[in-house]
Amino acid sequence: MILGIHHTSFLTGDLAKARQFYEGVLGLSLANNRPQMSFEGVWYDITPSQQIHLMLLPNPEAGLQRPAHGGRDRHVALLVSDMAKLMERLSTAGVAYTQSQSGRRAVFCRDPDGNALEFMEA
């Protein structure tokens, strides 16, 4: 019955800072089809049928202690075409990351709001 994942949503307290990370560091482009909503936000197309939504809303978990390694926290896993290039972009931007503790070729980092992201080489 389930065909796939359409989108994942992340809360942000600073949309400009989040956009700098998702657009400037990760290289994502804005989707132009976000409908008018009661709060600010942006959508990014990952594939024609997959998106990331950033929502400028208060974080109900503010102050919650997150695990140091994103693999031990809820996260989304994204496929990348070039892991070395991604790691270079993260390093250049000063974004801390950890490698998978399972031995897989995967990297974890957090966005400016503490949301965990996993990157796996396709």
Explain the overall architecture.
- The protein is of the alpha/beta class and 122 residues long.
- It has a single domain, classed as 2,3-Dihydroxybiphenyl 1,2-Dioxygenase, domain 1, CATH 3.10.180.10.
- The protein has 2 helices and 7 strands.
- The strands form 2 sheets. The chain has a 4-stranded mixed sheet with strand order 4-7-6-5, covered by helices on one side. A 3-stranded mixed sheet has the order 1-3-2.
- A hairpin with a 2-residue loop joins β2 (41-47) and β3 (50-56).
- The longest helix has 11 residues, at 15-25.
Throw out a few tags for this protein.
122 residues, globular, single chain, alpha/beta, 3-stranded mixed β-sheet, 2 helices, 2,3-Dihydroxybiphenyl 1,2-Dioxygenase, domain 1
What is the strand and helix layout of this fold?
Layout: E1 7-12, H1 15-25, E2 41-47, E3 50-56, E4 75-80, H2 83-92, E5 97-99, E6 106-110, E7 116-121
Parallel strand pairs: 1-3, 4-7
Antiparallel strand pairs: 2-3, 5-6, 6-7
Strand arrangement across the biggest beta sheet: 4-7-6-5
Percent helix = 10-25%
CATH-assigned fold name: 2,3-Dihydroxybiphenyl 1,2-Dioxygenase, domain 1
Shape: globular
Label the CATH architecture. Answer: Roll
What do we call the CATH homologous superfamily?
2,3-Dihydroxybiphenyl 1,2-Dioxygenase, domain 1
